[in-house]
């Protein structure tokens, strides 16, 4: 298959290439067998990630998907309940892994927030001593929630509720970097509360591979066993971990630029015929006339700008490391041209 012909790829913040400096760090990485816990670069990445998030320990995983699934696997036994938003990545975008791998029963809520409302929690916790009921094991949150920043008060409230009732709380913070940047808080503050937290190095940070699960030392010891069970034991993984380590050192600070660029793109697109656009951290959500979104995404692609229709009237664009200031102006011009063609 040919590589993409898209000149400006806004389909996802995973569409980045390692920078020359990142590649150099990867090429020069000290490595060892990480299944034997002898890869110094992986150890360094895990220690640095845990420290940044204010936790005892971290485990490097091939993907955020696997980190989430390990958290679910550790939290519940077969038949227990997992509570999450109906659109949570851990339920809807990981092939039903929590059902397949851990045999957990999903209980969902809807609404704009990924953080369960207090009334919903209170309603679900009632009657759990009834013989008919499955036992609740895990309550999940997500931040950012498809670009939207969740208030940390909700995270603290849900985490306290979970502790009080003997559930585990998990935060899918694949884009926690963006949330912390937008909130103007430290990563440790943004991660505070839940028992386990997932972060992803290959989204906004632009590393080629990997994610991490962070928690207390004992949970991470068990997570290391679970990662092996899932076939995620990696050998000289320092090669890829070095990219993530480089990203933590050099690409965290610049996320505010992505957010500012998303704002500029949204402002430009709102002037295009038939479009209204909103920036949510590094994402731009553009509303089209009903049914027009797939056509707009296709036409933009033909003009060399990659974006995705996430609904019949909604196109998503994601700003990342490989999108420059000039790319934003160019993308806005080309998508505007596409919107004009559709409106004509
Ligand atoms: C992308 C994403 C994941 C999965 O990340 P991978 O590293 O690609 O597996 C999980 N959760 C959320 C919220 C995501 O956006």
TrEMBL record:
Pfam families: Beta_elim_lyase. Keywords: Pyridoxal phosphate. The keyword rRNA processing does not apply. Transmembrane segments: none annotated. Residues 9-286 form the Aromatic amino acid beta-eliminating lyase/threonine aldolase domain. Its cofactor is pyridoxal 5'-phosphate. Belongs to the threonine aldolase family. This is GntG family PLP-dependent aldolase. It comes from Nocardiopsis endophytica.
